[in-house]
């Protein structure tokens, strides 16, 4: 209920200011009747009432023109003091409200300038025209206190509002940042799954296509060989289904243990990967240089997929029956090169260094902090080289002699 009342008042600022003017007029009216103890009033009450009424009417513009409002009320307050009225909070009520509004809506320097100017003007007027019997303390301290108080409160209110707005802005920025980061992560995950699907489908479909073609050629002339290749074709399609199930399983949100994806492949499965190309007529030689070191899970998967895609490209695009995979371990990086000596097939074969295959390989390498380049070899064939970071050595191992 209180919140609805506050919203209703904020939506009707003119009505609020009019009600405030009426209340201030009723508040300031007795100020014209207050005198110094033991001294009868020497001036009539009506000039003070008239100036107070004008001051309260001027307050209706305090939101849109705060500086002008304070200036007019300073003139009115100065005239009231010059007529001989005692300086009290009752007479200065409209000016105090105007100074508070000025401090809330402007900067500290502007508010202080108007406040100290008003203090000097009112004190000077009180010293010159005020009754001699009035205590000097009232002439000096009263205007200073009653004008500095609303100015200070307005400044504190403005600073508090600025602080709350800054906190809200930071909270909104943090919320937007979290949402953008979440969307970015979702996009990255989709791209990773898309790369996995591309690699799995491209690799197994290329092998299955080549094996099916070989079966068609050998079916009449070499039935035993055709039967063996059919068995390999069955293994190729089964492997494709398993990897597709594992990859698509990442898109599901489930806690069923039976639906959890299988472990991701890595360089440990490199022998099985290279042997799978034998059915496509490609002999792959694997050599390793240096002390084998473990890779992170992401780098291990990236290395496997890069080798898989590179060998698939050899099968699709190169007129060769051999390829070489070389693993070179250094102190912090693993360099993998996949090379072949065959020329590119001319029959509608795309350029090797174009298409999504190499784009996916480069993205995989960059995603784990590595790099990749692919280029034709000077003596024929094609070469894909990637460098991936290795897991840091344990402290005990690195400190060992």
Structure description:
With 401 residues, this protein is an alpha+beta fold. The protein folds into 2 domains: 2-174, no CATH class; 266-392, 2-Layer Sandwich (Heat Shock Protein 90). 62% of the residues lie in helices and 10% in strands. The protein has 12 helices and 7 strands. It has helices at residues 2-10, 13-28, 46-58, 66-82, 93-105, 108-129, 136-221, 223-249, 270-276, 297-317, 356-367, 395-399, and strands at residues 283-289, 318-319, 322-329, 333-340, 343-344, 371-376, 382-389. The strands form 2 sheets. The protein has a 5-stranded mixed beta sheet with strand order 1-3-4-7-6, with helices on one face. Strand 3 and strand 4 form a beta hairpin. The chain is rod-shaped. The model is unreliable at 253-261, 346-352 and 395-401 (pLDDT under 50).
What's the gist of this structure?
With 401 residues, the protein is α+β, with helices and mostly antiparallel strands. The protein folds into 2 domains: 2-174, no CATH class; 266-392, 2-Layer Sandwich (Heat Shock Protein 90).
